[in-house]
Design brief:
This protein is an alpha/beta fold. Helices cover 29% and strands 24% of the residues.
């Protein structure tokens, strides 16, 4: 028996990736509805062998009878419509940041804390974590089980697709314009993104961190362990798809490189590519379009006791958003909705 699915924000980069992921994984669907703003209503989006689906107006849609909503329309829109969908009886899996730190909303990476899904009944909403948080906690979980993690220092190198289609267009247009000596036009980013790096993602907070950095810190605590200390520096780089992270971890007890490597190899969804030679690591270019979270450059951090450093890369539109949301839906069906 298939499920009735609705995808909110279906015309966006993540919404389209959700449709691709549902199709590729053979998700058991009886009926699927794609939703977006009024200006997108009537347009078409692709969905596997079905072909094209017609986008409906989110503002006028009745969610009654929908089993699962995969939501990625932006925080303000989700704040209005995700509760409406939940009130109509749907389970909402939300990709925006709006509900993540709500104490009554589970924040879930299925390979890390699937037990948290049991709390979905409080609000009928499950939050998908920030893309950079997902790939990091995916790797931290098995290491935390080896030797309790005390502190994490992470620097991210985040693709422009994390800021949406307009940001991807801006990188393309700036790159092309520079080659023909056109003035740089900035709309999505505060500074030139082509051939540059911008240490500024989301808004600045009073303590000097950006909200993106804050998300990584508080989400890691909520998902994994509130006692873990995290400091983050989040940087936007001129890459279209794929987030990379340089992570240094301080443990309470010794964890060797060999122990870490074996634990990560045994972790579902993690791929260890760690050869100490040219090309013996994964970059965003190789991770784009792939499902796993890749780990490379595992080594001792000699600046602290019981420290390791490593390199993490994942496709931010897949594992960082669409795939994780679909995996949540699959787990929900198996563990909570099958009766």
């Amino acid at each position: 028996m298939g499920h009735k699915i609705a995808v909110m924000g279906a015309t966006g980069a993540v919404g389209r990736e959700i449709l691709t992921t549902l199709s590729e994984r053979g998700f058991d669907i009886n009926d699927i509805t794609v939703l977006a703003s009024r200006r997108s209503a009537g347009t078409k989006v692709s969905f596997g062998d079905v072909g094209e689906l017609t986008v409906q107006d989110l503002a006028t849609f009745d969610f009654k009878g929908i089993d699962i909503v995969l939501s990625s329309p932006g925080g303000a829109v989700s704040a209005e419509y995700s509760p409406k969908a939940a009130a109509a009886g749907a389970v909402v899996i939300d990709n925006t940041s709006h509900f993540r730190m709500d104490p009554d909303v589970p924040l879930v990476v299925p390979e890390v804390n699937p037990e948290a899904l049991a709390g979905y009944k409080d609000r009928g909403i499950i939050a998908n974590p920030n893309c950079s948080t997902i790939q990091m906690v995916h790797v931290l979980k098995p290491l935390h089980e080896l030797g309790k993690i005390k502190r994490v220092v992470v620097s991210t190198y985040q693709a422009v697709s994390g800021a949406g289609k307009d940001a991807m267009d801006e990188l393309f247009n700036q790159t092309r314009g520079i080659y023909v000596n056109e003035p740089v036009q900035k709309q999505c980013f505060t500074k030139q993104i082509a051939f540059n790096c911008i240490p500024h993602i989301d808004k600045f907070m009073d303590d000097g961190y950006t909200k993106e950095e804050w998300k990584m810190m508080v989400e890691t605590k909520k998902i994994l362990d509130p006692s873990i200390k995290v400091t983050a520096t989040c940087v936007r780089v001129p890459v279209f798809v794929g987030h990379a992270e340089a992570v240094s971890i301080e443990f309470e007890d010794e964890v060797t490189v060999e122990q870490a490597r074996e634990a990560l190899k045994a972790t579902p969804g993690v791929s260890v590519v760690d050869h100490r030679q040219d090309e013996g690591y994964v970059t965003p270019a190789e991770a784009a379009g792939e499902d796993p979270t890749f780990v490379s450059r595992i080594r001792v951090d000699p600046t602290v006791d019981n420290g390791l450093s490593l390199w993490i890369v994942a496709d931010n539109l897949r594992k960082g958003a669409a795939l994780n949301a679909v995996q949540i839906a699959e787990t929900m069906i198996k563990e909570h909705l099958s009766a």
